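Bumping my old thread because nobody answered last time. Still need a sequence for this structure:
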């Protein structure tokens, strides 16, 4: 099968389109014919090999036939003897390793049925980014109806899902983005939009019960100025790097307004929750660009520039 293989750590030039063996499945495994694969900042961090802990995902001291891509949408090709939820021909989406390839092997518990309302491209955009938003807002921040929530970086991959999920939890949502993305952020449910090119939300009069930070471009002291007395800052686990999360973790026990850092963990139960939000019309994917499999290096180069509007998806 054709796959993108990472041959080293560094720039997207370390990625090559190669013929490799089709993965084998275990008794509880599912072989998926990939129709689309979502890529995001985490794939770029692993490609760059920073922080060094990321290298344990791909191989040490250099990648060992590592195939990038953590989000998949496709058609079930074959199932192991122990699999009961899926059968060949089912359309599925989920989160597993090695999705930038014609086929990927996933565990039965890493997949859920693809909503009929979504294309494969739209479905592949969902898992990792939407899970980060869901777990950050619902579990780490414990958003309650009526709270004022500010999403810093509302037009990015996680941010676009965070705006919608915060709304589904009953919050009043303010999204921070650039001028060109304001209308899009409003279209997905933001009650208010702050254009960071024209206004500094940390110096404005408005105060928030939660700042969900997807950008890590402001200090905690600056963000704290925009909080209510009982408000908190929760950093998105996928952005800002390990150092950002470590600083937040060290502050959390001693600084009341530092919310708990979290590491988003894919699981079938939360994928089902996302599926329910999609089918209820409360969650949709914003797709910035699509690329063919052979153009995956260009896709990750674009993500590395830090200006993606919504999600970037590889189509096969």
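Sorry it took so long. Here it is:
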């Amino acid at each position: 099968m054709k796959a993108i293989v990472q041959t080293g750590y560094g720039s997207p030039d370390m990625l090559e389109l190669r013929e490799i063996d089709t993965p084998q499945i275990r008794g509880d495994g599912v072989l998926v014919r990939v129709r689309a694969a979502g890529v995001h900042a985490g794939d770029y961090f692993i490609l760059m090999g920073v922080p060094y802990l990321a290298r344990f995902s791909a191989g040490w001291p250099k990648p060992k036939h590592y195939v990038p891509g953590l989000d998949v949408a496709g058609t079930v090709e074959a199932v192991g003897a122990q699999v009961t939820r899926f059968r060949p021909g089912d359309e599925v989406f989920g989160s597993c390793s090695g999705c930038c390839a014609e086929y990927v092997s996933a565990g039965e518990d890493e997949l859920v049925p693809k909503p009929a309302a979504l294309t494969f491209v739209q479905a592949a955009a969902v898992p990792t980014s939407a899970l980060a938003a869901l777990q950050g807002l619902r579990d780490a921040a414990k958003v309650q109806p009526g709270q004022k929530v500010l999403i810093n970086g509302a037009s990015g991959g996680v941010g676009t899902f965070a705006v919608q999920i915060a709304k589904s939890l009953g919050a009043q949502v303010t999204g921070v983005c650039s001028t060109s993305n304001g209308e899009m952020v409003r279209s997905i449910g933001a009650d208010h939009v702050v254009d960071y090119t024209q206004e500094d939300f940390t110096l404005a009069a408005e105060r928030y019960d939660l700042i969900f930070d997807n950008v890590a471009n402001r200090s905690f002291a600056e963000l704290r100025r925009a909080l209510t007395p009982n408000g908190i800052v929760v950093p998105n686990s996928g952005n800002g790097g390990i150092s950002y999360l470590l600083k937040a973790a060290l502050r959390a026990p001693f600084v009341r307004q530092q919310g708990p850092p979290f590491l988003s963990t894919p699981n079938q139960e939360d994928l089902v929750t996302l599926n329910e939000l999609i089918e209820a019309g409360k969650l949709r994917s914003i797709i910035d660009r699509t690329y063919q499999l052979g153009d995956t290096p260009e896709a990750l180069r674009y993500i590395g520039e830090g200006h993606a509007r919504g999600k970037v998806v590889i189509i096969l």
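Residues 147 and 258 are 17 Å apart (CA to CA). Let me know if any region looks off to you.
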